[in-house]
Amino acid sequence: MIGNDVIDIIQSRKESNWQRKGLLEKIFTAEEQLLINKALQPEIMVWLLWSMKEAAYKIYNRQTKIRSYFPQKLECSFRFQNDSYMSGTVICCGNRYYTKTNITNDCIHTIAVINPDHLKKVIEIEKKNISKDQYGIPFLTSVQSDSVKDVSVSNHGRFEKVVALSFNDCPLSEPD
Q: Where does the record place the 4'-phosphopantetheinyl transferase domain (predicted)?
């Protein structure tokens, strides 16, 4: 299973005031608030943590079919971090999700999976042959093999990311 979230940093500056009273307390755990307060770039830390939560939530939603707003139940932690890349985990209701995030001046993009080895198998794909089930969860259909694959779609501002897992025995795209 896979989830992803993309944040257009410029768009987020126009749409959201992350510094408004009570917002951080509503969305982030006490530990995450400490990370934000100690960060050299607190704005980037806010959107990094939010992106991790969103990507993991997409898997949780796929697993449980539960749609609810409970960002504090998604607890983020870091395994590795530098200025442009970060890996971590998100715990939600006893489930552990593994994340990797790429950070540029314009964009934060996080991918979440249920098995850390799957982070090596993530591919970006074109947004075609994608449908949604009755819960609004996207999937990729393959006409040739009559199969369905998990896919995650995210867009914000100028960016759209469509990702899936590629396994040798599971082709993800139709031949031209």
A: 2-97
